[in-house]
Write a structure and sequence with these properties.
The structure holds two protein chains of two kinds. Chain A is mainly beta. Chain A has a single domain (about 25-165), classed as OB fold (Dihydrolipoamide Acetyltransferase, E2P), CATH 2.40.50.140. Helix content of chain A is about 15%, strand content about 40%. Chain A has helices spanning about 25-40, 155-164; strands at about 15, 20-25, 45-50, 55, 75, 80-90, 95-105, 115, 130-135, 150-155. The termini of chain A are far apart. In chain A, about 35% of the residues are buried. The radius of gyration of chain B is 24 Å and the shape is globular. In chain B, helix 1 packs parallel to helix 3 and helix 4 (about 90-100) crosses helix 15. Chain B is of the alpha+beta class. Chain B has 17 helices and 24 strands. Classes of the chains: A mainly beta, B alpha+beta. The interface between A and B is large, with 37 and 64 residues.
């Protein structure tokens, strides 16, 4: 039944694609979260009192008990670095000019963690458990995007930045 | 049938919308919450969750099952997504049945979600890869083709009047006018409106087709013991059936959905239904296109072959008719968020058999209903028979018990302008590219085309010559026996005159896709007609292949340029 492929260049192939693009809208809770981020620089979460759990970003419902939630809790701006990774290669495996650091941060007041960039940690090695603070884009540059947050900086560095 | 009896005890749905402001997760939660509220359960009462959603490409989320799991109530629970294309919604009720009938779980939450509005420029882009990548995609197919080809064949085989078929669209859009979740309810639509709507791919016109939609539906099922604890009006899942036809759709007759009959017989046998036309009192067949409802009613053995259209014409299928069909308004009226639309049919039977369907309630005391959906490459049939043990409950005075209207969740429609300007919207192009291997059988077939030959494979046990060829026979599951050169001629089994491209742009002149039965074989394939005026094409017309010049052939289905009417030789 199997036929030996004597001339691989003769193997019949047909090139094609999957011609779809998508436009994702943030939904009810996402809209509240991004509006507050753009307009007030606030990071909103949702607290489920029954489950004693605070989600971030804000959510419409509690996945544990199905209660309806509102975006009623403001979190941060400081938090604790729960984990991080440093990426040295891009999507296609190409080396990056500047490594990218991504962190999971538990903002003060939250139970869930937020994924975002860790900004230029410098020569000091990062450590899990370090205190970090949110760095926002300037108000006039915000568009209502998760990128209105530039990332997290070490809390000490952030306070030095602010003082300067 | 082994296992506990299983009942539907609650149902809920969102509105079906052209475009929802909610994310898919939020839609799923709104429907799931509504279903649990309807039977006064909480998520803690749910032992297992069954989810369905059609292709990931609609929502644009790879592994959509996992993405939707929180909104479906899957957190920390046994959870799985199933998927059989358009048949998914009804299949989830089958999945729910075996999840509970197995004895493993007492209460299962079934959720179906679809958010088709995310797909740009048109959800059809996600459908293109259901066609054979080597033999059909190069022809530039459009999903409408397969419906138009099937509808034309159905109409031609029985000499049907398009007016009778269009009366199904009218009935369903009128029925939907009484549905609080409906997208396209229209109390005053007429057959003439349908026949005057834009021709997309003849014989399919705009109003023959259900609209793409966003929405979610959820249903709660329970074991007999749990059901009796939860409600005094359980609606039992009496029978389930599912069946798949060959994936070689151009080898099928297309006149009659045998796979639906097979699934229906399985469900009827389980339910003890011996005379479906007498024992089924309300039907929710799958109606993405008007002719499909009729096709499916025949497959469900509720009408003789070719006889459902006259039943539609004569009002038999109306809500007040002898066999109400799609009293919900169906996909044509309520909307078609694919998987959700299927589960909506289960929810509708639940409401109808409890006497809770409000303005949509069918008269009398319906005792048993059948829901059906269809999908994959128009090859899967999923069927569920539901019953209420002898009619909706009555008070001692013989009146219906207190009727609570079905709980319908909100859902927030999003306008075109709101969609374009939505805060925080993110655009993304999938950008996936492929190089598909022809494989052994089709590779040789393409070599044959380059040499000006059409090759098939013979199955001596089934006495079939297979075109397109395959190295195994899908019926007897043996290796096929050898290569056979077949004729360059054939007959038009069915055709369409298609006026729109896959992304719904106008085509002028129109394209003429056809299924060609190849002489000397038991099969055929999809190709294009040419050198003929659209008005001159007929089913059964003799045609011949027109080849590209030898130097231009590349080992492709396009080495045949087109088929034209056969010239006398």
């Amino acid at each position: 039944m199997r036929e030996k492929v004597a001339r691989p260049d003769e193997v019949r192939r047909w090139p094609g694609d999957f011609p779809v693009a998508h436009r994702y809208t943030p939904g009810l809770a996402g809209d509240a979260f991004l509006t507050a981020l753009r307009d007030r620089g606030a990071i909103l979460g949702s607290r489920c009192e029954r489950c004693a759990y605070t989600y971030v970003p804000a959510r419409l419902f509690c996945e544990r008990c199905f209660a309806e939630l509102d975006a009623g809790v403001e979190l941060g701006p400081e938090g604790t670095l729960v984990s991080f990774t440093i990426g040295f290669v891009g999507l296609e495996g190409e080396p990056l000019d500047r490594p990218v650091t991504l962190g999971l941060v538990r903002l003060d007041g939250a139970d869930a963690v937020l994924l975002h960039h860790v900004l230029d940690p410098g020569d000091e090695p990062l450590e899990i458990g370090e205190r970090v603070a949110v760095v926002l884009r300037a108000p006039e540059e915000r568009t209502g995007s998760i990128l209105d947050i530039l990332g997290f900086a070490l809390a000490e560095a952030e306070s030095r930045l602010s003082e300067a | 049938m082994s296992g506990t009896r299983v009942a539907v005890v609650g149902a809920g749905m969102t509105r079906f919308m052209r475009r929802a402001q909610e994310t898919g997760k939020e839609l799923a939660w709104e429907a799931a919450r509504a279903a649990l509220d309807s039977c006064e359960l909480t998520l803690a009462d749910v032992d297992a969750v069954c989810l369905t959603s059609a292709p990931d490409a609609f929502d644009g989320v790879h592994m959509k099952g996992e993405y939707l799991s929180d909104g479906a109530g899957g957190f920390g629970k046994p959870f799985i997504r199933t998927y059989v294309g358009g048949g998914s919604g009804v299949f989830t009720a089958i999945q729910g049945w075996y999840t509970v009938a197995s004895g493993m779980f007492d209460v299962a939450l079934l959720v179906a979600e679809e958010k088709m509005s995310s797909t740009q420029p048109h959800p059809q882009g996600a459908f293109l890869t259901i066609f054979d990548n080597i033999l059909e995609r190069p022809l530039g197919p459009n999903l409408l083709w397969i419906f138009a080809l099937e509808m034309n064949r159905y109409m031609s085989a029985y000499g049907l009047d398009k007016r009778d078929i269009a009366s199904v669209a009218v009935k369903n859009k009128r029925n939907a006018a009484g549905h609080p979740a409906a997208l396209l309810g229209q109390a005053d639509i007429t057959v003439d409106d349908v026949l005057a709507s834009e021709v997309l791919a003849w014989p399919v016109q705009r109003l023959d087709v259900s609209p793409i939609s966003d929405g979610a539906v959820a249903v709660v099922v329970a074991s007999e013991e749990a059901a009796k604890r939860i409600t005094d009006r359980p609606v039992w899942i009496e029978g389930v059936g599912w069946n798949l036809d060959t994936t070689y759709w151009t080898n099928r007759d297309l006149v009659y959905p045998e796979y639906v009959e097979n699934a229906a017989r399985m469900a009827y046998d389980m339910a003890g239904v011996k005379e479906p036309r007498r024992q089924i009192h309300v039907a929710e067949p799958y109606d993405p296109f008007d002719y499909k409802e009729l096709h499916h009613l025949e497959g469900l053995l509720l009408f003789e072959k070719g006889k459902a259209p006259e039943a539609a014409r004569d009002g038999v299928l109306d809500r007040e008719g002898d066999l109400p069909s799609c009293p919900s308004g169906g996909l044509l009226g309520v909307g078609n968020p694919i998987a959700a639309a299927g589960l909506m049919k289960i929810a509708e039977l639940f409401w109808q058999l409890r006497g809770e369907a409000g303005a949509r309630q069918v008269p009398g005391t319906p005792e048993r209903g059948v829901a059906q959906a269809w999908g994959d490459l128009m090859q899967v049939g999923t069927v569920v028979v539901m019953g209420n043990d002898g009619g909706p409950p009555k008070t001692a005075a013989g009146l219906p018990v207190v009727q609570t209207p079905p709980y319908t969740a909100g859902g927030h429609p999003l306008s075109d302008g709101g969609f374009r300007s939505a805060l925080g919207a993110v655009d993304h192009r999938l950008g996936a590219r492929y190089s598909w291997d022809a494989g052994v059988a089709v590779g040789r077939f393409l070599d044959g085309l380059r040499a000006g030959k059409i090759l098939g494979r013979e199955c001596r046990r089934c006495e079939r010559v297979l075109v397109p060829p395959r190295m195994f026979c899908e019926r007897c599951f043996r290796e096929t026996d050898g290569w056979i050169e077949v004729e360059h001629t054939g007959t038009v089994q069915t055709y369409s005159i298609c006026h729109v491209s896959w992304d719904m742009q106008p085509l002028d002149p129109p394209e003429m896709p056809a299924v060609i039965s190849i002489d000397g074989s038991d099969g055929g394939f999809l190709h294009m007609l040419g050198e003929v005026d659209p008005d001159g094409v007929r089913i059964g017309m003799d045609v011949e292949a027109v080849w590209k010049p030898v130097g231009e052939r590349a080992g492709s289905i396009l080495d045949i340029d087109h088929f034209r009417p056969r010239r006398q030789s």
